[in-house]
Amino acid sequence: MSDPTALPNLTPTSGQGGAAPAGGDGAEQPAEEPLGQRVQEALTSLGLEASTDDDGDVAFTFEEQQLFVRTDDGTNVMRVFGQWRLEEPVPTDDVERLSICNDVNVAFNLVKTAVANDTLLVTSEHILPRNADVRGLLGIAVPLVLQGVQVWHQRATGQVPGEEGEESAQGGQDGSADPQPGQSGQAQG
């Protein structure tokens, strides 16, 4: 295990090797469009209708699931997420639900799951470098969020991915099966 006190100082530097001034002179690279705007443009180029909701998140529907992207231009963080109301046949025990979240979190590198107030939250968060390919990242992150929901639901209901039977007859891992936990219709933002 690494000693966290031995980590290098990763202070941003300018092209000349010195520390970058706090404000920067703006002469090196042109300013990028705000991340939220770049996300909306990327979703549109992927053939998805995007809008901004009351919370300032970019809302869109993918595979009949309501999803959101929250951005922070100050830190260049992009969070793709959805929320699903948990209902039968999902277990009601909080410890069991959180144990399933932990299993999914360990299994995926880019997806996090959590449960709060009978709602499953599945996210994929990314810190974007300058000039990042937002469209390409969304093309990966959005299906991963839905895959995380599907895996969570399979574990919660005792289904084994790839096992022959009812799940395979409903579509299974090809994405045609309904990935939402419980019996709820759409994600909530």
TrEMBL record:
InterPro entries: TY-Chap_M. Residues 35-124 form the TY-Chap central domain. Residues 1-37, 156-189 are annotated as: Disordered. It holds the Pfam family TY-Chap1. Residues 15-26 have a biased composition (Gly residues). This is Putative sensory transduction regulator. Signal peptide: none annotated.
